[in-house]
Amino acid sequence: MTGTFARRDRLRDELAARFPGWRIWYVPHYDGSRSWTVWCAQPHPSLAEDTPEQLAGAIEQARPGEPPGAPQATVLVPGGDGGPRR
What we know:
- The protein is elongated.
- It has two helices and four strands.
- The model has no long low-confidence stretch (mean pLDDT 79).
- Strand 3 (77-78) and strand 4 (84-85) form a beta hairpin.
- The protein is 33% helix and 26% strand.
- Strands 1-2 form a two-stranded antiparallel ribbon. Strands 3-4 form a two-stranded antiparallel sheet.
- It is an alpha+beta fold.
């Protein structure tokens, strides 16, 4: 199992080098009979504001458009078997 995490860490580091300005992480899952990994990314900077309106304004100021090299987002929802479905 350690080798699997080392490989995932290496892949995460490669993605982070390829897409500067993005926080990249993975979430390993195991349901007792199979395992899978969900890969995640979030553009920097992380923002915190007191109200939704202030947060919306801060987002618009920080990211008026998509960041250069932004990957296409895929929304994952649980499938009928408990695993991810695109």
